[in-house]
Amino acid sequence: MINDLLVFIPQTLCTKQSGYVLGKVVYDTHSDLKKFYIISLHKEGSSELTKCTLDTIGYYSNANNATKKFLDHKHSDWVHITIKHSENGQNEYYLTNIVLNNKNIDLLTTHATIVLYDHQALQETELFESKAASGDHFYELAKLIQNMKDELRIKSKFVCIWETLLIYHIFFYLYPVLWLSKITEKLLPVLKYSSLGLHVYSWLENIKWMLITILHDKSFKLKTGNYALSIVIDIALGIFVLRLLQYYIEDQPSQLLLNNAEKVVETLKDLINWLMGVPAGLKLNHALNNSMGKFFLYHIQLWWTFLTFLKPLLDLAFKILLLFGGLGVTFQISIIADLLALVSFHTYCIYVYAARVKFIIGSSIYS
């Protein structure tokens, strides 16, 4: 026999007139209790009572317009709720009649708990876990309210127009994003070697998720709204950084890169020439020092020649990169990562060549 009962009542019920209580009755086998989820209320004789898919689970009597007419004999689970207005302005709810499994329950032997909840907050919440544990009362109540909110709330003409405009607007952006996403997915074997390429791919995938979610919900929810706001902030910061760089840097980015690269080349040449002599008074193998020094000087000069010939292409590349930089500061960070990899590419080449030479020399010595 069920001795425990939970009745969830919306806080705004006290402002309603007497009428039938609509909601769901759920039996929790784990806790051996029944839960009355009261979602809405309809007055007697209302045509919406027969159209709504919610169950009629009780009757609410307001002290100002109480009535004794209710339909407990037609339902296996029924609760009759009354309210009393106290002198201090607080409203107190009472259960005057309870029917469980077609049996009248003695109020003295039943432990009934009334829980007041905020209907609007549970209707708009998105913070509940998608896979809540069994018996989570508020998760069940929130999902019940959200699933039934279209029936309980008639959309105004303005809302319908807004949803229609939003859908057309989303479709306008969705098709180009889907097309670009397919292209980047096919180019992913090449783009995975570039930080900018990987960021463009992930950015398009996130944009696609956001647009499809908005299209499904017909509105901005918590997650999609936060992501849209982050995109706006990212683009604003990106434009601000670009304006700041253009204000303080007068030269072309490619020329600035070549000027810094030239300083690095001269420094490396001086260092290698010093090592080819008698560094710190050490007497090293002159023939080996000379051959290794010329080896590194050759590759440094080769790298410098490569950058010089690439200057026209670098100008075009920087213009394209600036377009991506306008999409957000995260794109600029990806561009900086690729530029660092490009500028330091010669060190990797020299390392590979030097390791190969060392292997050849070591093999010849040990053989």
UniProtKB/TrEMBL annotation:
InterPro entries noted in UniProt: PigQ/GPI1
Key word Cell wall biogenesis/degradation present: no
Membrane-spanning segments: 158-178, 227-249, 295-314, 321-354
A Pfam family: Gpi1
Keywords from the UniProt entry: Membrane, Transmembrane, Transmembrane helix
Annotated GO CC locations: endoplasmic reticulum; membrane
Alphabetical GO biological process terms: GPI anchor biosynthetic process
Protein name: Phosphatidylinositol N-acetylglucosaminyltransferase subunit Q
Species this chain originates from: Lasius platythorax
Source organism phylogeny: Eukaryota, Metazoa, Ecdysozoa, Arthropoda, Hexapoda
